[in-house]
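Feature request, filed as a ticket because there's no other form

It would be nice if the structure record came with a short human-readable summary line next to the tokens. Right now we just get the raw output. Example of a typical job, pasted below so the devs can see what we mean:
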Amino acid sequence: MEHVYSHLGAAEISDLAVKIFANIVPILPTDEDDDRTYSYADSKTRREFQIHRSEELDDANKPCARFFMSEFVPTGVVITGKNKKGHVTRSEVEPAIAETEKRLGPNGLMQALDEAGIDTMNLVQMGGGYGVGSIFHSSLEGCAEEIAKSLAANTRYQYFRHLTDQEKVKMERSDAVQSHEYWKSERAAMDRALSSEKGVFKGCFTMFGSVSEEYKRKILAYLNNPSHEAWQEIRGYIVTNTGTLWQAWCAYNPEAPRSGNVGYPSKDELTEALRAFVRERDKEISARLKETSPVGLRAV
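Raw output as currently delivered:
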């Protein structure tokens, strides 16, 4: 089955790109020097594209614009219900969406779904975001050319490229270096907390340093007089930079509630849970440090 842009030659694709460029519209109008978002909707195929313009610095450290583009693609889900506020209350997977695109390509998808009685106005569609290998263009005209090529080829626009083996190794090494630096900072924070904090708070810390004096007072007040109301207030307090009091209790007691507002730990149980939580975090930090090294290579 032929699609609406079949048999376009190079000249026709160029003409199509000119028309597309003329119909790209800003959807977040701002000053020219600021980031800006544009969209293009193809009337024949109902394919939609979004373009984000951002200011960067070139190799000469001069401001220049670059454009990231992605296409909105149906996820295979159709919204089947909304409440009075317009919030989605029901949705369902529709296998015919993927099957139809595989058979006809993206250009013929919407028309075929309409003919099949599928509500195309309530398709859940998703665009792409920045990531490793993201493709950027130097102008809106360049984006228009890529849209034209995608329409002519009846294929989805690819907003990223696959990394080479060398790039993958470089990225993995960079991630390992960052990981090592993170765990080294966690080691330093834990050591400070173990040496400076006392009693039940020994080894406790947050991303800002020590647990605040206000939080300490409330935790101690709870330990002196545990209650359901007090637990609701303190259970979300961070005690090991990434873990909360509630997580400490759940890790210590497999029967502790994982959700809702039922139950609360006794003084002794929460005290033991917090100490065990700190010990496990201390072990995790040491283990993670052994897995990486400052140069990004896994330690042997």
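Something like this underneath would help us a lot:
DSSP finds nine helices and seven strands in the chain.
The CA atoms of residues 51 and 69 lie 4 Å apart.
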